[in-house]
């Protein structure tokens, strides 16, 4: 019974829930960034470099062939186009995360730098009246 309670306490702790939400949002954000890169950024770049689709860029180390039994053996390739694609994806995600962290840090600095309001000024008349009140209390 103690193990179940301990797990429940762990699972509902704020940090674990926040982490789960962050992972889910991060996965969705990754898909959005992949679409941005694949569908919007890379086609014009490919057009600028001669209509090349970066995902098709590769170095063939060994051509595909048919073995004596008639089975096709796939080519051995280094797919550097996919690598370029992932580097662009990573760069965009890293920049977006950097901007979010920078925004959060700026908001924290503004909260820390907010001046504390000065203590309320006391009117001289109020001070005199309080002193008179206190003197009257001592006499009575």
Looking at the structure, the CATH topology is Non-ribosomal Peptide Synthetase Peptidyl Carrier Protein, Chain A
Quantity of strands, as a count: 4
Low-confidence stretches: none
Shape: elongated
N/C terminus separation:
68 Å
Domain count: 1
Which superfamily, in CATH terms, is the homologous superfamily?
Large-conductance mechanosensitive channel, MscL, domain 1
Number of helical segments with 4 or more residues: 4
Strand order of the largest sheet: 1-4
Helix content: 55-70%
Rg (CA only)? 34 Å
Rounded mean pLDDT score: 83
Relative strand content = 5-15%
Structural class: mainly alpha
Give the CATH architecture. Answer: Orthogonal Bundle
Biggest beta-sheet profile: 2 strands, antiparallel
- The arrangement of helices and strands along the chain is HHEEEEHH
CATH class term: Mainly Alpha
How does this structure look, described?
3% of the residues are buried. Strands 1-4 form a two-stranded antiparallel sheet. A two-stranded antiparallel sheet has the order 2-3. The mean pLDDT is 83. It has a single domain (2-114), classed as Orthogonal Bundle (Non-ribosomal Peptide Synthetase Peptidyl Carrier Protein, Chain A), CATH 1.10.1200.120. With 140 residues, the chain is mainly alpha-helical. It is built from four helices and four strands, in the order ααββββαα. Channel that opens in response to stretch forces in the membrane lipid bilayer. May participate in the regulation of osmotic pressure changes within the cell. This is Large-conductance mechanosensitive channel. The chain crosses the membrane at residues 12-33, 80-101. Homopentamer.
């Amino acid at each position: 019974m103690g193990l179940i309670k301990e797990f429940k306490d762990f699972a509902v702790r704020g940090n674990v829930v926040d982490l789960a939400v962050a992972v889910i949002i991060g996965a969705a954000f990754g898909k959005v960034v992949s679409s941005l890169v694949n569908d919007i950024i890379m086609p014009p770049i490919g057009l600028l470099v001669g209509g090349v689709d970066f995902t098709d860029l590769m170095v063939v180390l060994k051509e595909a062939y048919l073995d004596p039994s008639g089975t096709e053996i796939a080519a051995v390739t280094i797919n550097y186009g996919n690598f370029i694609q992932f580097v662009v994806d990573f760069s965009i995600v890293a920049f977006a995360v950097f901007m979010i962290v920078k925004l959060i840090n700026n908001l924290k600095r503004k909260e820390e730098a907010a001046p504390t309001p000065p203590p309320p000024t006391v009117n001289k008349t109020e001070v005199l009246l309080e002193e008179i009140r206190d003197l009257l209390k001592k006499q009575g």
